[in-house]
Amino acid sequence: MSEAKPVVLEKRGEVAWLIIDRADKANALTAAMMEEMTRHVTAAVADESSKALVLSGAGTRAFSGGVDFRTVTNLPPADARKLRSQRFFELLMALAGFPKPMISAMNGVASGGGAMIALLGDRVIAAENAAIALPEIDLGGPTMPGLAILTFLAGAGVASDLVQSGRRMPPTEALSRGLIGEIAKADALEGRAEQAALVLGSKPSKAFGLNKEWLRRPLIAALHAAEEEHLRLRASGAMH
Q1: 163, burial (CB in 10 Å: exposed 0-12, middle 13-18, buried 19+)
Q2: Strand, coil or helix: what is 158?
């Protein structure tokens, strides 16, 4: 897939597949890509023919390396950082609030923002070569949304471990910690993701959505707080 179309939306029957197709750049997310992903996620809510969404990445090396800080833009650096942050939080909120089943097919390493969006799946299925990392601390920055998601899913101990060390967590450990639901062989990952999407997508949609909304109320509130704190720290000059 060319650089001109790094986000692909495919309809496979009743399941929509949203694929990050930028494997040569570790599926890193530009502001434009995140905007497009948010648009597709929002459209999938209204599309009655889509019963579930699968989120995955191209290739076998990376699900997503997170937000792309290296792509040159025409914006001044401060404005570019602000736009990336805005688009990232918009995507996080769209995925966290998505009322239909979402399956994350983690085809490789999910790092930073890539890990955050993957972990928002109702079911996360990881390939054997996958891993989870939130290495922002090694870059000198905090990760409030990462802490919010990890704490919601697995508790403060796991959140502190991953965020404060910046280490990579292999899939076997992520499974035991409750961050993912299944490990699949690479050649079986898509099939397992589709099966999970069809199973959850067959449930009464209104009941599923209401259950999910109630379950995720604390997470949504925490992500809103994380965005506010992120903006406050940036305004104060405490982070870039």
Answers
A1: buried
A2: helix
| 51 and 92 Cβ atoms separated by less than 8 Å | no
pLDDT in tens, the chain (240 residues): 344 589 999 999 999 999 999 999 999 999 999 999 999 999 999 999 999 999 999 999 999 999 998 877 788 888 888 899 999 999 999 999 999 999 999 999 999 999 999 999 999 999 999 999 999 999 999 999 999 999 999 999 999 999 999 999 999 999 999 999 999 999 999 999 999 999 999 999 999 999 999 999 999 999 999 999 998 998 887 776
The sign one gets for the Cα dihedral 102, 214, 174, 183 is negative
Residue at 215 is within a domain: no
**What is the pTM for the complete model shown?**
0.95
- Measured in degrees and rounded to the nearest 5, phi and psi for residue 202 equal -80, -10
For 131, phi and psi rounded to 5 degrees?
-160, 160
Rounded Cα–Cα distance for residues 51 and 31 (Å):
27
Count up the domains in the chain and report the number.
1
Domain housing 164: 7-201
Pairing of strands 109-111, 131-133: parallel
CB atoms within 10 A of CB 49: 9
What is the arrangement of strands in the sheet containing 168-169, beginning at the earlier edge strand?
Answer: 62-64, 109-111, 131-133, 168-169
Q: Does any domain span residue 223? A: no
How is residue 153 written in tokens?
Answer: 């899913």
Instruction: Say which residue the tokens 């955050």 belong to.
Output: 116
